[in-house]
Design brief:
The chain has four domains: 6-103, OB fold (Dihydrolipoamide Acetyltransferase, E2P), CATH 2.40.50.140; 126-268, 3-Layer(aba) Sandwich (Rossmann fold), CATH 3.40.50; 281-328; 331-373, no CATH class. It has ten helices and 13 strands. It has 380 residues and is of the alpha/beta class. 40% of the residues lie in helices and 23% in strands.
Length: 380
């Protein structure tokens, strides 16, 4: 039976928790207990009649929360996402917003829009478009005066020397922000339809309070992102902030900086890799050529050796044949005093049985022939 480690189990569970959209931007009501502060972070437990769950407010979120709401025994409504701790095999809620119980128009609207769009299937993974791996132009829909745009430009230009950045100055908070975001998404898509290449859109802003991020929970903004033919990366707030835009976008980035990192390939690393592969290819080709040359030389030497052996063998065979021919040449026999006897038709007379007394025969010798008549015959 194959076993897995405790770490593997905890990391697997943690990944499942992180990937579950249902566990992002949860709205939870409960009573605060065990409130404590560790450095710039706040820790407490939310409880009801039957259960408790640990909560944490990290320093990055604490500045956007009214800390005066944090009191032991006080009932509150929090917006939070699951934060697993694989090493300890536990989880807690990472809180981004706190309201006194009975309050929370923003959260109520968030839940209404989320439930409505989820029921329509706008969050389904089947609608997610792939983010281009080698974009030539990235459109950025955000404020042109905030820190987010500077972070995006810095990251993209540091990683990539081929991708253009097209900025759509956008109102991202306050009155008119939702309309501004929708309008610029539509403009980007219209430009793309008219031939201006825009491979990817980054839609978002830097961190802020729940009120500051409210435009990215707007239903019209969500529908505009979903309808975009250009793939959209949502980049709203800090890592712990979750918006409706995150659910409908093709990819969610934890921050605008992370969105810029996800949007482009590192062309400098790619070039280094290409050069390394080129050098490896050249080296492999040279080694292959050298090996083939050595193999060719070996086969050529073997061919020459085989040909030489064949020629030598053939020459020996010819010489032997010449000896046999010479030894069987009648002229050589005639030079030893022998002669050949033929009748009038030229037929060789091999023995005395074939001789007829009184007939003429031709006697062939080394230097000529003469005619003789058989006067008698006798056997030895």
């Amino acid at each position: 039976m194959r076993a897995v480690t405790v770490t593997q189990v905890n990391e697997y569970i943690a990944k499942k928790l992180r990937d579950d959209y249902q566990l992002r931007m949860l709205v939870v009501e409960g009573e605060i207990s065990g409130l404590s502060k560790g450095g710039p972070h706040w820790y407490f437990t939310l409880k009801d009649q039957n259960s408790i769950i640990k909560c944490a407010i990290w320093a990055s979120n604490a500045r956007n929360i009214d800390i005066k709401l944090l009191e032991n025994g006080k009932k509150v409504i929090v917006a939070a996402s699951i934060s697993p701790y694989p090493k300890g095999g536990s989880y807690s809620l990472s809180v981004t917003h706190v309201e006194a119980a009975g309050e929370g128009d923003l959260m109520a609207e968030f839940n209404r829009v989320k439930a409505k769009l989820e029921a329509e299937g706008l969050f389904d993974r089947k609608w997610k478009k792939p983010i281009p791996e080698f974009p030539l132009r990235v459109g950025v829909i955000t404020s042109d005066t905030g820190a987010a745009i500077e972070d995006i430009k810095k990251i993209i230009t540091a990683k990539n020397n081929l991708t253009d950045i097209l900025i759509f100055p956008t109102l991202v908070q306050g009155l008119g922000a939702s309309a501004s975001i929708c309008e610029n998404i539509a403009i980007a898509n219209q430009l793309a339809e008219n031939g201006l290449r825009i491979d990817t859109l980054i839609v978002g802003r830097g961190g802020g309070s729940a009120e500051d991020l409210a435009a990215f929970n707007d239903e019209n903004v969500a529908r505009a992102i979903f309808a975009s033919k250009i793939p959209v990366i949502s980049a709203v707030g800090h890592e712990s902030d979750v918006s409706i835009s995150d659910f409908v976008a093709d990819l969610r980035a934890e921050t605008p900086t992370a969105a810029a990192d996800l949007a482009v390939m590192n062309t400098y690393e790619l070039m280094d890799e290409v050069l390394s592969l080129r050098d490896s290819l050249i080296t492999s080709a040279r080694q292959k050529i050298q090996a083939e040359r050595l193999l060719l030389e070996a086969k050529t030497d073997l061919l020459y050796s085989n040909m030489k052996g064949k020629i030598t063998m053939t020459r020996s065979t010819v010489e032997k044949a010449m000896i046999v021919i010479r030894e069987n040449d009648p002229r050589n026999i005639f030079s030893k005093g022998y002669a050949a006897v033929t009748d009038g038709s030229g037929k060789v007379i091999p023995d005395t049985e074939s001789v007829t007394v009184g007939c003429d025969y031709t006697i062939r010798m080394r230097d000529g022939s003469f005619t003789a008549r058989a006067l008698d015959k006798r056997k030895d």
